[in-house]
Amino acid sequence: MRNTTLCYIEKNGAYLMMLRNKKKVDENAGKWVGVGGKFEEGESPEECVEREVLEETGLHLTDYCFRGLITFVSDEWGCEYMHLFTADAFEDSKHDTSEYENYAIIEDELSHAHSLTMPVPECEEGELRWIAKEDIMDLNLWEGDRPFLKLLMESDSFFTMRLQYEGDKLVKIDQKVY
Fold first, then answer.
1. CB neighbour class for 100 (10 Å; exposed up to 12, middle 13-18, buried from 19)
2. How far is CA 167 from its chain centroid?
3. Is the pLDDT of residue 173 over 80?
């Protein structure tokens, strides 16, 4: 059983999304996901999400919330507990905060969605884009990401969800909202 974190960083009505397209071996290849990764030995969920966001984006989270616990069960990848966070405040050592306030909304060639022209850091694991929240569901997402993204966008409640996959096919969803 592995433990991971995933964070959806929000700014100006957009989430920072990553197209996983740079690693040679990646179970998320070609999919759009939030930012996160695997726990290191002895880490708490909060320590893991802070470290992973900093490593992948250079952003230091200053306000974030633990929103849910997702249990993935797969006949191919085994089991995973994913600790799901949202964040709406961060510090960026490379860009002035005014660069996040003066932006345009464009049609992004990579995502074919509306993207905001706010600073986007380089990442070794994929291409990062600020995607307008109303266009997130149009991206190439894992089928099981859609139900938890819907909950993140529509409710502030904590939730648990169990997603069962056979291969790439989502075959069962159980959820509880608290």
1. middle
2. 21
3. yes
| Three-class secondary structure assignment of the chain | CEEEEEEEEEECCEEEEEECCCCCCCCCCCCEECEEEECCCCCCHHHHHHHHHHHHHCEEEEEEEEEEEEEEEECCCEEEEEEEEEEEEEEECCCCCHHHHCCCEEECCCCCCEEECCCCCCCCCCEEEEEEHHHHHHCCCCCCHHHHHHHHHHCCCCEEEEEEEECCEEEEEEEEEC
Residue 20 near residue 97, CB atoms below 8 Å: no
How does residue 116 score in pLDDT terms, banded at 50, 70 and 90? confident
Instruction: Mention every residue, 6+ apart, whose C-beta is less than 8 A from residue 157.
Output: 151, 177, 178
From CA 153, how far away is CA 164, in angstroms rounded?
Answer: 22
Quote the Cα angle for 26-31-35, to 5°. 80
CA 141 to chain centroid? 11
pLDDT in tens, 5-33: 999 999 999 999 999 776 677 666 678 99
Question: For residue range 53-99, what is the model confidence (pLDDT) as tens digits?
Answer: 999 998 999 999 999 999 999 998 889 999 999 999 999 877 777 77
State how far the Cα of 178 lies from the Cα of 169, in Å rounded to an integer. Answer: 27
